[in-house]
């Protein structure tokens, strides 16, 4: 049995740019993107069988996914996996997603290598993430491990040193209300979390301390504040036991015990 043939009798433009309504045998049949309209020659007089109509609808479905993905991918740089996840969340099947991603790659809209290289370059300029932090972010974005490693070659030790030189002073200042030791620990912890090399962090802190005079008045002010809090907490104790508990509390906060002894003597 032969498929029933239908004829395109009218095509009208929708208000949405690039969208058209197609009428078959004087009845509305479907709406298509301009690219589908042209590709399948959907103009007045064209005849279509059921197989062709199904093919057009499938192509239109894929084109709609492509249009959404294109809009998403051109708003800012995206990876292939990010686009795939976006389409999956919108209910598209994997076959359609794979086709759309491939088209976007062929059109050079998606390029994971360029994405990785650009991300590394921007991270170096910003100085807020070390190489391990950049690697983690790129892994989250779905970049291939080998692509990440190739891109990270551009993030040199000198780049890390430059970034740490900028960051260390600001972080130590931010933690200035803590003991010198604890301020450095917190600074190091923050930079480790951001993916910088531990040895380079320690080196940057040491160099900063060598070039900047340590504020002993600030250290004593911090100690006085924290020791007073500890003394109030252990006020029910007396003598050796009281001093031991205060010293232990201050030791945990990173203060020099000689300074703590000096504070306790002044208190007496």
User: Main sheet: which strands, in order across?
Assistant: 3-2-1-4
Task: Give me the secondary-structure category.
Answer: alpha+beta
Uncertain ranges = none
Count of discrete alpha- or pi-helical segments spanning 4 or more residues: 13
- What is the 3D form? elongated
| Run of helices and strands | EEEHEHHHHHHHHHHHH
Gap between N and C termini: 108 Å
Total beta strand runs: 4
Give Rg in angstroms: 33 Å
The portion of residues assigned to helices is 55-70%
Mean pLDDT: 93
Strand content: 5-15%
> How would a textbook summarize the main sheet?
4 strands, antiparallel
Q: How does the SSE layout of this entry go?
A:
Blueprint: E1 6-13, E2 19-24, E3 27-33, H1 34-39, E4 47-48, H2 50-75, H3 80-89, H4 94-106, H5 112-126, H6 131-140, H7 145-152, H8 157-174, H9 180-193, H10 198-211, H11 216-233, H12 239-252, H13 257-267
Antiparallel strand pairs: 1-2, 1-4, 2-3
Helix pairs in contact: 2-4, 3-4, 5-7, 6-7, 8-9, 8-10, 9-10, 11-12, 12-13
Structural write-up:
This protein has 268 residues and is α+β, with helices and mostly antiparallel strands. It is built from 13 helices and 4 strands. It has a 4-stranded antiparallel β-sheet with strand order 3-2-1-4. β1 and β2 form a beta hairpin. α8 (157-174) packs across α10.
């Amino acid at each position: 049995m032969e498929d029933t043939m239908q004829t395109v009798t009218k095509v009208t433009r929708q208000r949405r740019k690039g969208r058209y309504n197609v009428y078959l045998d004087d009845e509305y049949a479907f709406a298509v993107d301009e690219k589908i309209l042209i590709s399948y020659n959907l103009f007045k007089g064209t005849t279509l069988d059921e197989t062709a109509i199904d093919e057009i609808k499938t192509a239109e479905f894929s084109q709609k996914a492509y249009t959404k993905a294109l809009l998403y991918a051109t708003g800012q740089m995206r990876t292939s996996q990010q686009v795939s996840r976006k389409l999956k969340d919108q209910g598209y099947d994997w076959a359609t997603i794979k086709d759309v991603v491939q088209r976007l790659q062929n059109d050079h809209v998606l390029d994971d290598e360029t994405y990785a290289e650009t991300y590394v370059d921007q991270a170096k300029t910003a100085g807020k993430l070390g190489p391990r932090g950049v690697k983690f972010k790129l892994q989250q974005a779905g970049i291939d491990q080998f692509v990440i490693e190739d891109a990270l070659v551009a993030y040199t030790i000198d780049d890390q040193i430059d970034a740490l030189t900028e960051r260390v002073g600001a972080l130590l200042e931010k933690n200035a209300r803590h003991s010198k030791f604890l301020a450095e620990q917190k600074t190091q912890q923050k930079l480790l979390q951001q993916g910088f090399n531990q040895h380079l962090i320690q080196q940057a802190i040491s160099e900063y301390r060598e070039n900047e005079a340590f504020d002993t008045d600030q250290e004593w002010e911090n100690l006085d504040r924290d020791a007073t809090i500890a003394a109030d907490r252990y006020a029910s104790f007396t003598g050796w036991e009281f001093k031991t508990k205060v010293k232990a509390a201050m030791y945990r906060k990173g203060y020099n015990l000689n300074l703590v002894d000096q504070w306790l003597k002044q208190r007496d």
